[in-house]
Design goal:
Layout (H helix, E strand, L loop, with lengths): L1 H43 L5 H106 L2
Helix pairs in contact: 1-2
């Protein structure tokens, strides 16, 4: 159960990692495309008036600020993601250690039970062998007594 939860958590971390990578690749490309389009439009106009130039300059400055903000956000997300991955790795290592410890305890418990059962069976077997030997000796004694009794009764008139 723990391993399934760790796998699911690991998958969600991988999905987040892929999403962050996608955002990191897409945002600079979009900003570059907007900047290029703004630059191309400016070149196409033969004589842009001063008001339009100011608007474009303000827009470019705003886009640069947005780009810097997005880059800072991306870096923060990377750091946060890296910390989360480190924590998940620590948790995973801890869980693996617990699993190994539990497996070892389980194996030791089974071995102890087997030793206990084996010892009991060996003791019972030894007791039964002694009982069989004593019963055999009693059978021999009884047969001897019976044959002696028969010979004594046959010899008497």
């Amino acid at each position: 159960m723990e391993e399934r939860r760790v796998r699911t958590t690991h998958r969600s971390v991988v999905v987040r990692r892929e999403w962050v990578r996608c955002v990191i690749r897409t945002v600079p490309a979009l900003i570059t495309a907007v900047l290029l389009l703004a630059g191309c439009q400016q070149q196409q106009e033969k004589a842009p008036n001063e008001k339009m130039a100011r608007l474009l300059a303000a827009e470019n400055a705003e886009m640069r600020q947005q780009m810097v903000a997005r880059q800072a956000e991306n870096e923060a997300l990377r750091q946060k993601h890296a910390k989360e991955l480190q924590q998940r790795d620590k948790e995973l290592a801890k869980c693996k250690g617990c699993i190994a410890e539990l497996q070892k305890d389980l194996e030791e418990g089974i071995a102890e039970r087997v030793r206990g059962v084996t010892a009991a069976v060996v003791d019972e077997n030894a007791r039964l062998r002694q009982e069989v030997e004593s019963l055999k000796a009693e059978i021999v004694r009884l047969k001897t007594e019976q044959s002696q009794a028969l010979t004594t009764t046959e010899g008497q008139p």
